[in-house]
Structures are given as structure tokens and as C-alpha cells.
Write a structure and sequence with these properties.
Blueprint: E1 36-39, E2 55-56, E3 68-69, E4 81-86, H1 93-96, E5 100-103, H2 110-113, H3 120-123, E6 125-132, E7 139-142, E8 146-148, E9 167-174, E10 178-183, H4 188-191, E11 194-195, E12 197-198, E13 201-202, E14 207-209, H5 211-224, E15 234-235, E16 240-241, E17 244-245, E18 249-250, E19 271-275, E20 280-283, H6 286-291, E21 296-299, H7 303-315, E22 322-323, E23 331-332, H8 335-343, H9 371-380, H10 391-394, H11 396-413, H12 415-418, H13 432-446, E24 458-462, E25 468-473
Parallel strand pairs: 4-10, 5-8
Antiparallel strand pairs: 1-21, 2-3, 4-5, 6-7, 6-9, 9-14, 11-14, 12-13, 15-18, 16-17, 19-20, 19-21, 22-23, 24-25
Length: 508
């Protein structure tokens, strides 16, 4: 639907969840930090996982879809990092339709490193483009394809028809720890304004190309009235949100403390199809899904996927969607769209969750707070830079305080509703409620919130397999101490960036 004609958040449309065939089970991870391999329903699609050591999930208590995913170790050497080769001219139609190549770091082959799309649940990479027409203000999405280096696409990517002078932003997501961009030519990354972090200190799972220019243009067009971002919508199902009680609550966005974790605004909503017989990938289009026998759907674990695919349907909300240029203009969401929705003034919660300095993706190479790196990240997702005003909500201490004081009562008050939802990661929680509760507890630890005089507000009950099956909450408001530290983490800093990908503060 043309964005200029969208007056509200869509309450209908084609749901991606409807295409998932069998509760999601993946190796233990915090939140949605590892990817998902799921079986597509209908047509000629197989119900078997492509991984030899795949483990099927147990049946869900709700009638929601379920899935399978690969388990076991990533590689014999447990490599967790990969490189992605960015094609020349990535902001053009030709560049968008040229496959990105996933390969090992430091010259390692895909096979030796485990950096293959058949290993997507552990080390899969995903790319997403959001496209702005500067003349009309219309928005579009196109998901460039990622293939394993040395392979070819299962189906050649669709060449998109871009608006004249289109402004493109490209977001990267990864299911491992660090994904490093490598240009196909010496000038590729510079010419496309690609940002991977600071020298010697990458963001980790995410990176960007041309995000600053895209959001600057989008914000200008919004101010001129040519780009119309819809309302976030309201839900008659939510009984508490943002500390308020009552029905008719606003739907959460990626800037709501109701739903964020320790690394907000990260990763993408891109989906790919995997042909398990050949190891080749293809764009997730209706045509490809019907023509690749036994195809498997690959997802990037992300805050955006959590909100758009799992929380919104349960809460009675719908993502901001625009035409998908690879899939006959079918409506789809994207990371950039989620940010535009969240940034809209009328959609902003009272207390706004921005990327904080204690997000491990924004720490420097020594594990210290880094304002410049945080600002670099924020610019690429259209957020305001670190300043005194937004530090009142998103400084390290205040981010922790707001996470505790806002998300805890939201999950507790909406327990019955959330418990009807499917868990994105059944190794973390057996339904959406227990998943969110466990994720909140782990986020508390990974942000070092205890260093600001706060106490973990969640007590999670685990079953014999280490899965969250119940939770209780202390909803008494807490007040952070040590709030003046904005450049140095408490207790001498937190070493080991991205350690939360593997640690288990809840005892799993």
C-alpha cells in the first residue's frame, strides 16, 4: 500500500506466522539472538529440518505454528564470527539483486568456519533494504539474498524497479556474534556509506549502509507532509502498558520499554528459503516457496521479529508494512519501518528506549562505554544522539531503571494474554510469557543493572531441561543509583563483548 495513503497501522493482511508449520526450538540464547530455521507449510514443502542434528520442538499448548531448528555446536572449533561480502554498488537495483556472500573470518572457508546458510540458526546472515522515493514519500522493502560463498542462488534474485533517485538504507543481521562487512571492491563500502562499528570494534551482529542519509531524508519528508507514518494503533487486549492500566492501550513499538531488551533496535525481519537438498538459498517469495520442494524458512532472531511476528498478533496489533519489491508488492515489514513507526512523535511513549551505552554492541573494544560508538549506531537507525535530555531515559542507569519499572508490570499484568502466544525460543520459555520474563531477567544481568543499585525483578521457574515454565515478579518501583556514570561502566568495565550470546544468568 502506498505509504502516503496509510492513515493507521494495518489491522489485517497476510501474516507470516500463518506460514510457519511446526513451537520454535533453538540452542539457548538470550532473547532473540540466535536465528530460527522453520518449516514452511503448504504446497510441496518438506517438514524436515535441513540439519542432520535437528531437534523438533514439543507440541505447543496453543494452536499457533511451530518449528524445527538446528542444534549442536556451530563448528568443531566453535567459531562464532563470519564475514559477509557486500556486492559492488549495493544501493542500486543491480547491486540489490546481486547476492551477498557469507564466508569465514580471516580467510577461513565457509565449511571450516561453519559460516554457511545451511547453518543459519547459528551463523546465518540476513540483509534488508528499505527504499524511499524522495519525490512521493512512498516506502518499499527489498530483501537482498545471502548465499554461502561458492554456491549460487537456488533462484536468481528479483531485480527491483526502484523509484528515480531512490534513497536506500541497508540493514544487516546475524545469528552469530560478529559479522564483518567486506567490500567486493576496494571502494564498495565507502561509496555506499557502510558502517560496521569503529576501527577494531565492530557492533557485532548488526551493521548498516547509508542509514544516516535515509533517515535524514525520511525525517525531512515527514516534516514536509510527503511521508506519512501511521499511528502505532491501539489494542483492546492489553490491560497495562507503560505503567498505565485499562483497555485500549497503545500498541508497543521498538522504543517501548514494555518490549525492549539489552540490545534494542537490532537485526532484521528478513526471511530466506533454503533448499535442504542443495544448500542453496532463495528470496522468500510466493513463487519460490511454491517451486522449491521441501524448502525451509530461515529467520534472523531480532527484536523486530519478536514484535512483528510474535507479540503483535497476540496483542491485537499489526506491524507497519509497505510493498515488497521482490514479492509482487505484498505488504511486509522491516527494521527501518519499525524505527520510523517508533520515532513518530505521536507514537512515542512517555519514556523512550533508545540504544544505551551499556548495550554490548556499543561498548568499545575494551568493554568500556563509548559515546561516539553509541552515536554512530543511533545515527544509522535514525535515533537522536546521546544528550542530557535523552539520558534521562536511556543513560546506562536510567535504561536499567526504566526496563525494570516499566517492562516488569507490563509482563506481569498481561501474563494471561502473553501466555497464549508462541515462544520465539522454546529453550528460553515454553510460551511467549515465560520467554519474555526470562529475557527480561537475562537483560538485567547483561546490562549490569545490579551495578546501579537495582535488583532483578523476575524469578523464573525452570523445568528439568532448563526452560522457563513460570515466573513471578516484584513490581515495586526501583530507583537507580550511580546515575552520573556515562562514560565508564561501574566496577571497572565489562569485558568480553557479546558474552551474553552464551551466558545463562537464569541457570539454563
Amino acid at each position: 500500500m502506498p505509504i502516503g495513503r496509510q492513515s493507521r497501522r494495518r489491522q489485517g493482511g497476510r501474516s507470516r506466522a500463518a506460514r510457519i508449520a511446526v513451537p520454535l526450538a533453538i540452542p539457548m540464547a538470550l532473547g532473540l539472538t540466535l536465528g530460527i530455521v522453520i518449516t514452511v507449510s503448504g504446497g510441496t514443502h518438506s517438514t524436515a529440518s535441513p540439519a542432520a542434528d535437528a531437534a523438533s520442538a514439543s507440541p505447543s499448548a496453543s494452536p499457533t505454528p511451530s518449528a524445527t531448528s538446528s542444534g549442536g555446536t556451530t563448528t568443531p572449533t566453535a567459531n562464532v564470527n563470519c564475514d559477509i561480502i557486500v556486492p559492488a554498488h549495493p544501493l542500486t537495483a543491480k547491486g540489490l539483486a546481486t547476492a551477498y556472500q557469507l564466508t569465514g573470518p580471516d580467510g577461513m572457508t565457509p565449511e571450516a568456519s561453519g559460516c554457511t546458510m545451511t547453518n543459519a540458526a547459528n551463523l546465518g546472515a540476513f540483509v534488508q533494504a528499505t527504499i524511499l522515493d524522495p519525490r512521493t514519500g512512498k516506502l518499499y522493502v527489498y530483501d537482498p539474498l545471502v548465499i554461502t560463498q561458492g554456491t549460487t542462488p537456488a533462484v536468481a534474485p528479483v531485480v527491483p524497479k526502484l523509484p528515480r533517485n531512490a534513497i536506500v538504507t541497508i540493514d544487516f543481521g546475524f545469528n552469530g556474534t560478529d559479522l564483518t562487512q567486506v567490500g567486493a571492491t576496494p571502494n564498495t563500502l565507502g561509496n555506499a556509506n557502510c558502517v560496521n562499528g569503529e576501527p577494531g570494534s565492530v557492533f557485532g551482529q548488526v551493521s548498516f549502509c547509508n542509514g544516516t542519509n535515509f533517515f535524514t531524508a525520511a525525517h525531512q519528508l515527514e516534516a514536509e507532509g510527503r511521508l506519512v507514518v501511521p499511528s502505532e494503533g491501539t489494542s483492546t487486549k492489553i490491560v497495562a502498558s507503560g505503567g498505565a492500566l485499562g483497555t485500549g492501550q497503545a500498541c508497543p513499538t521498538t522504543h517501548n520499554f514494555d518490549m525492549v531488551d539489552q540490545d534494542p533496535s537490532d537485526n532484521v525481519t528478513t526471511e530466506y528459503l533454503l533448499n535442504p537438498a542443495t544448500g542453496q538459498t532463495a528470496q522468500d517469495t510466493a513463487s519460490n516457496a511454491g517451486n522449491i520442494a521441501g524448502s525451509m524458512l530461515l529467520l534472523n532472531g531480532s527484536d523486530n521479529t519478536l514484535l512483528d511476528l510474535f507479540m503483535d498478533p497476540v496483542l491485537g496489533c499489526t506491524p507497519f508494512q509497505v510493498p515488497d519489491l521482490a514479492n509482487n508488492d505484498q505488504p511486509t515489514s522491516s527494521q527501518a519501518l519499525d524505527e520510523l513507526l517508533a520515532e513518530k512523535t505521536r507514537n512515542q511513549p512517555k519514556l523512550v528506549a533508545l540504544v544505551p551505552e551499556n548495550d554490548e554492541m556499543t561498548l568499545n573494544g575494551d568493554g568500556q562505554f563509548d559515546v561516539a560508538k553509541t552515536d554512530l549506531y543511533r545515527e544509522e537507525v535514525g535515533q537522536t544522539l546521546v544528550n542530557r535530555q535523552n539520558n534521562q531515559t536511556s543513560s546506562p542507569a536510567m535504561y536499567c531503571q526504566n526496563l525494570v519499572n516499566i517492562q516488569t508490570p507490563f509482563i506481569a499484568a498481561n501474563q494471561a494474554l502473553l501466555a497464549t502466544g508462541q515462544s520465539p525460543v522454546t529453550a528460553v520459555g515454553d510460551n511467549l510469557f515465560t520467554f519474555l520474563a526470562n529475557r527480561l531477567s537475562m537483560s538485567f544481568t547483561n546490562l549490569a543493572c545490579q551495578d546501579f543499585g537495582l535488583t532483578d525483578p523476575v524469578t523464573v521457574t525452570l523445568n528439568g531441561a532448563g526452560v522457563g515454565v513460570a515466573a513471578t515478579f516484584n513490581t515495586t518501583p526501583q530507583k537507580a543509583t550511580n546515575t552520573g556514570s556515562t562514560t565508564t561502566p561501574p566496577q571497572g568495565g565489562r569485558k568480553g563483548r557479546n558474552h551474553h550470546r552464551y551466558m545463562n544468568p537464569s541457570g539454563m
